[in-house]
Design brief:
Order of helices and strands: EEHEEHHEE
Helix content: 10-25%
Structural class: alpha+beta
Shape: elongated
Largest sheet: 4 strands, antiparallel
Distance between the termini: 51 Å
Radius of gyration: 22 Å
Number of domains: 2
Length: 150
């Protein structure tokens, strides 16, 4: 088994997600890898359509897209070499196995709320909470991005 560099396409989605009923959203970015550019572009188009349909998600289309990249991967000279390499199943996972569903931003928000004192209890020292709103520490010199639905 040798190692080789293979071309992949990195799909980057930049979005701002607001918990239900809130006007402030939390910025997030995630990446997915694809072997072909067309697969990446189709997935990007579908993600953007899906996210635009949601009332609580704003997609930053200027920071979302497909970009070529490369990853180092093991390569095998033949199918029999591959079969011999994966004969020992430790460390390998069958593709049919469902991944656990990622925790929603709402449940992460609720979990963080539970761990914070109210601003009255903490005498205004951030981070604290007022109802379901999390008050973060002030940051100096950092720019604040305003997201708007077009």
């Amino acid at each position: 088994m040798d190692a080789a560099w293979i071309q992949v396409f990195v799909l980057t989605m930049a979005e701002c997600v607001a918990p239900a009923g809130k006007t402030v959203c939390q910025e997030s970015e995630f990446e997915l890898l694809f072997l072909t550019q067309s697969d990446c572009e189709i997935a990007l188009e579908q993600f953007v359509m899906l996210k635009d349909a949601a009332d609580n998600v704003i997609v930053d289309k200027t920071r979302s897209g497909c970009a070529p990249s490369a990853r180092q991967q093991p390569t095998f000279a033949s199918l029999s070499d591959l079969s011999a390499a994966v004969e020992d199943k430790s460390g390998w996972k069958a593709p049919e196995v469902d991944e656990p569903t990622p925790t929603s931003s709402r449940s992460l928000h609720q979990a963080r709320l539970e761990g914070l004192k109210t601003c009255e209890e903490s005498e205004g020292i951030a981070p604290c909470r007022i109802g379901e709103i999390i008050i973060e520490e002030a940051t100096e010199g950092e720019t604040v991005e305003v997201w708007r639905r077009e």
